[in-house]
Amino acid sequence: xxxxxxxxxxxxxxxxxxxxxxxxxxxxxxxxxxxxxxxxxxxxxxxxxxxx
Length: 52
Hints:
Keywords: Membrane, Transmembrane, Transmembrane helix. The chain crosses the membrane at residues 25-46. The protein is mainly alpha-helical. The protein has one domain (1-51). Helices cover 90% and strands 0% of the residues. The protein has helices spanning 2-24, 26-49. Helix 1 crosses helix 2 (26-49).
């Protein structure tokens, strides 16, 4: 069951990326995805460092 959730999440990310590529082109898609990855990394870092 957990594997199905991972595959669904991965396919959602791929569809999201393809949508950006088709709508905005390579450069804009890379910029948007880069910003999203940086924000996600920052949120994960804050969640790890946050006190319980």
